[in-house]
Amino acid sequence: MELSVLLFLAVLMGLLLLLVKGRPSTRGYLPPGPHPLPFLGNLLQMHRGGLLKSFLRLREKYGDVFTVYLGQRPAVMLCGIEAIKEALVDQAEDFSGRGKIATVEPVLQGYGVVFANGDRWKALRRFSVATMRDFGMGKRSVEERIQEEAQCLVEELRKSKGALLNPIFLFHCITSNIICSIVFGKRFDYKDEEFLRLQDLFYQSFSLVSSLYGQLFELFSDFMKFFPGPHRQICKNAQEINAFVGCSVEKHRETLDPSAPRDLIDAYLLRMEKEKSNPHSEFNQKNLILNTFSLFFAGTETTSTTLRYGFLLMLKHPHVAERVHKEIEQVIGKHRPPALEDRVKMPYTDAVIHEIQRFADLLPLGLPHMVTKDTHFRGYIIPKDTEVFPILNSALRDPRYFEKPDAFNPDHFLDANGALKKNEAFIPFSLGKRICLGEGIAKAELFLFFTTILQNFSLASPVAPEDIDLTPQENGVGKLPQQYQIRFLPRQRG
Ligand code: HEM
């Protein structure tokens, strides 16, 4: 018999044995779910529309808590605010681990606050929260920094003289500059080539992570990682970004004044120095670079994509934009910049921003968690280190909490008297110990950028509202709107 035939038979026998063995073995007693095939896991149950659609379909059959095999990895899905809360809040410690996103795993390798676990995560989270507060709220508050950035944006938009433009690049610049001012102690000009290159690398990477390819990679990374493909581009992009961060760290080292740290990198370098005799310290060079990278990735794409969705929604619903203009005129007027204290007096605008975030549904699958020990949950036993996805989309689009979940309607957040109405299923920043660390900064940015733009400009589109397409361009880990063109027309100063 020829060697190739022998090999073929051997592989076939191997596969048959695996099939007979059935479900990949796990300890514990996992929630129900479709029967997985060896190697392929639940590939056959996956929908062409991507992971979210597939998971929502499985929910119809298996209920709010079920198990899906992403290739060989079992992952528990949590749907609906009740299940998500029970896990992330009521059993906060057990569900506080971080799972992996296969496309970014080779870049971060468990370093940096977003993807770290255990003591490393605790140290980095504590440090990042404290320094963001100190350098965000210290001498110059985050509010002032955002107001300043918003005025730079207004100047730049005035220069466009109402010409059609794609807002993507400016929105990246403004949100990135807020993080830059906290982390590097400076903002960049919108024409700075290096800065623009960084924005492009982040955007490309977020799009690739969220693409259909990125979702397929999530299922088969163990196999696909050996072959060329877009996942390699994500690593290349990250290397370029990290080289930039590395250069900036070196400049900080040269000018560091221990008595007056200016920004997050200075604070980190001082901490490194303080802990240099501790071989187990998490304050090392690798965490410095990758923590900075993580804060950028988490803090730039998220807020700028939400703004981009927001203005697309305003073009689609001009009557909503008109009511926001009116409220701005009544409460703020034309002659001073918006401030955070205006928000409580502007319930309609606040409701619109809530609804933008709800509708944008930026991270529909949440970020993957992981259980830190064998965990009893709703009668099941989830083995230590199993991944858990809090499907934020299932809360944000829950018809029991939002009357018309798939429509954009600010009334979802207004009571009969026109006051802001809170809704417990509104969890775009997730919940529990891993809740978004930049929630306060993101909310301040969304309010101040949104109102400053609408105070100064009316919006116009070459496409009629009824023809504006809200279908996302990518809908994987992140949900990205289609690219569009918009005119910012200066409003009369009066
Ligand atoms: C509209 C804007 C934003 C949204 C919708 C958003 C949403 C989220 C979500 C859903 C998570 C995952 C939480 C979990 O694991 O359950 C997260 C984590 C995180 N976000 Fe945000 N985020 C936004 C802006 C920001 C900003 C501006 C920053 C930085 C200043 C930031 C920094 C982080 C960090 C560091 C984590 C990881 C926290 C950890 O693992 O302990 N985010 N965010």
Automatic annotation (TrEMBL):
Q: What is its main location?
A: endoplasmic reticulum
Q: Which cofactor does it need?
A: heme
What membrane topology was assigned to this protein in its record? Peripheral membrane protein
Q: Source organism's superkingdom?
A: Eukaryota
A single GO BP? epoxygenase P450 pathway
Ordered alphabetically, the record's keywords are: Endoplasmic reticulum, Heme, Iron, Membrane, Metal-binding, Microsome, Monooxygenase, Oxidoreductase, Signal
Residues spanning the signal sequence = 1-22
Identify a single GO molecular function assigned to this protein: heme binding
**Where does it live in the cell?**
Endoplasmic reticulum membrane; Microsome membrane
Q: Give the matching Pfam families.
A: p450
Which residues make up the binding site for heme?
A: C436
InterPro entries of this UniProt entry?
Cyt_P450, Cyt_P450_CS, Cyt_P450_E_grp-I, Cyt_P450_E_grp-I_CYP2B-like, Cyt_P450_sf, Cytochrome_P450_fam2
Q: Which GO terms describe its cellular component?
A: endoplasmic reticulum membrane
Q: Does the keyword Cytoplasm apply?
A: no
Q: Does the keyword Iron apply?
A: yes
Family recorded in the similarity comment: Belongs to the cytochrome P450 family.
Q: Which PANTHER family match?
A: CYTOCHROME P450 2B6, CYTOCHROME P450 508A4-RELATED
- Give the protein name, as stated in the record: Cytochrome P450 family 2 subfamily B member 65
Source species of the chain? Propithecus coquereli (Coquerel's sifaka)
Lineage of this protein's species?
Eukaryota, Metazoa, Chordata, Craniata, Vertebrata
Gene expressing this chain = CYP2B65
